[in-house]
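Anyone else keep sequences and structure tokens together like this?

Example one:
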Amino acid sequence: VMALMVGAMTIHGIVPGPQVMQKQPDLVWGMIASMWIGNLMLIIINLPLVGIWVRLLRVPYRLMFPSIVIFCAIGIYSVNNAPVDVILAGIFGLVGYWLIKHDFEPAPLLLGMVLGPLMEENLRRALLISRGDWSVFLTRPLSAVLLAVAAGLLVLTVLPALRAKRDEVFTESEN
């Protein structure tokens, strides 16, 4: 949830960080107040409706899923009244389904989308300072250590998959 909020703030041109409290206190306190009001409204609404929510859980998935998709499509269309938005949501839904089926983790993808522009901007800044010399990332001790740690972690995450494939090949060749 926090990554989504940071992403939304970044999209609206608000730089997330400790300075937000000082530069835009009305935004921060508005978010805090909206969370309090939202939780209070959830308690007021949900306590009398507990029986309905329990009955809703008994609806079969084959009926629930299409209705959720239809309500999502209506909501997407109602934002801009553009059918292209619904088509894009469908395409992204298919991509998401493919990613889930192939065991992709959603958290790194979300972090990449949120932190990607910030990283790109700082990479460009570092290259401007170094006049386009890429070797600055290897000659400076701190950046060299960070790159080595990142490469080591990448190797550690890839090794089990490579080992599993190698073992699979050897077991197939023995049979």
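And example two:
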Amino acid sequence: MTPPQLRVGVIGVGIMGTDHAERLAHRTAGVVLAGVSDPDTARAAALAERLGTTVHDDPLALVASPDVDAVVIASPGFVHEEQVLACLAHGTAALCEKPLTMDDASALRLVEAEAALGRRLVTVGFMRRFDPEYAAVRASLLSGDHGRLLLLHNTHRNRSVPHTDFRSEMIVRDSLVHEVDASRFLFGEEVVEVTVLSPAPTSHAGEGVVDPQVALFRMAGGGLVTNEVFVNSQVGYEVRFEAVAERGSLTAGLGSTGVLATSVTAGGGRWGGVVPDDYRTRFARAYDLEVQAWADAVRSGTTVGPSAWDGYAATAVSTAGMASLSTGRPVQVDLAPRPVLYDEHH
């Protein structure tokens, strides 16, 4: 018997929330867009009219609505705790965009609240796990054909970011957090130490902003991860990695012909093809697969994707990374005991 359509509301309709609302309305099977909410009521109303849905002035009212089965949370991170707690209180499944919260203490509170319920309702939007290339590399590593993963080299570049919003700490908390989760995903273990180093900053960064940044992760099993995050590269949106194992390496994010060179030209960045300006272009397929998998899991009463624990662990590493950013020294990552709810065999 086919489960009924899943009625999904969207909280926060900025760039990412609007993208998700359009995805739910037009590209996700078994789903109906059941409402949107945003402090910018005019923007929310315009989107609702265009997509044929309703507007809720209060996001918590959307969560509590009898006409909503699940929500996508795409609001700013500082309101995530309240909104996720509301979802847990109402038994409403939530796909929460990263970061889960802005600090590890509040993220841990969400983990503990969900563990107390005894069932998973929260999925965190680390969409790279659904990217076909990331998933293929993970599967190849799990097969054992390449032996143990030893080193991971991550590159994460944006063309530019708003100088008023993206300070040095934001680069760690909002950009590097993706590398944290990708590293945990590919290694299958936790980050135990982080060091954030500060090269001479680009002239395109805002005053006092450390950009680019180089972060080093030490993994629980002894592996090492190098991360370059450069949010004002002027070229475009580039995300790629090389995983170096005992018997070979695997590289993703190069495109069909491989990276030849990147440069700034009148037409933008080039790599023997076009370097996309936007993360929504680079990971369009990953977002579609992520939301469809989440919707299918909610409809069938199962779970899929990164959990609240994954969100907490990534936030804890980012918190340690911000401490290291101020000193340049290694900082240990101390995680709370992992509840049984998040054991993969549970």
